[in-house]
């Protein structure tokens, strides 16, 4: 490969935020919610220290040597993740979750959608949300599966 050929790379950055939520679906009865979500359906909610890793991809710029300036990515993540979610009650403080169950899967989709509005088109590759050390969701923008 010649020095002028494009090189592709992935760049990741992580942040952590704290938030509380209650897993509860308006489509289910209180009994069904308790059966499905167990202790996570506690009416007073519960909290997590979430870790989010965002991965972007693109060509390595031959002049800067970067896929994206990390300072820019940090600012995008601040606006898309930290400002709306950090130290919030997801169900009460984030309008998106008033109608969507605040599972980690849906948190990942929320973050993806927010980042898509800020990042250059086609750059976002993956959003990884660690709810705990054992529970991780990876979302790559897949919308639906045709059944």
UniProtKB/TrEMBL annotation:
SUPFAM superfamilies: Tetrahydrobiopterin biosynthesis enzymes-like. Its EC number is 4.2.3.12. GO terms for biological process: tetrahydrobiopterin biosynthetic process. One of its GO terms (cellular component) is mitochondrion. Its cofactor is Zn(2+). Pathway: Cofactor biosynthesis; tetrahydrobiopterin biosynthesis; tetrahydrobiopterin from 7,8-dihydroneopterin triphosphate: step 1/3. The keyword Transcription regulation does not apply. Binds 1 zinc ion per subunit. Keywords: Lyase, Metal-binding, Tetrahydrobiopterin biosynthesis, Zinc. Involved in the biosynthesis of tetrahydrobiopterin, an essential cofactor of aromatic amino acid hydroxylases. Catalyzes the transformation of 7,8-dihydroneopterin triphosphate into 6-pyruvoyl tetrahydropterin. Belongs to the PTPS family. This is 6-pyruvoyl tetrahydrobiopterin synthase. It comes from Chaetops frenatus. The lineage of its organism: Eukaryota, Metazoa, Chordata, Craniata, Vertebrata. The gene is Pts.
């Amino acid at each position: 490969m010649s020095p002028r050929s494009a090189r592709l790379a992935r760049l990741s950055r992580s942040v952590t935020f704290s938030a509380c939520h209650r897993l509860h679906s308006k489509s289910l009865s209180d009994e069904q919610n308790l059966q499905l979500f167990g202790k996570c359906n506690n009416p007073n909610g519960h909290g997590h220290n979430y870790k989010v890793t965002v991965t972007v991809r693109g060509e390595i710029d031959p002049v800067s040597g970067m896929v994206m300036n990390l300072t820019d990515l940090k600012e995008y993540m601040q606006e898309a993740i930290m400002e709306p979610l950090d130290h919030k009650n997801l169900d009460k403080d984030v309008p998106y979750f008033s109608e969507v169950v605040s599972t980690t899967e849906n948190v990942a989709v929320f973050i993806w959608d927010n980042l898509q509005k800020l990042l250059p088109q086609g750059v976002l590759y993956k959003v990884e949300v660690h709810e705990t050390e054992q529970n991780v969701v990876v979302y790559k923008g897949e919308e639906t599966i045709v059944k």
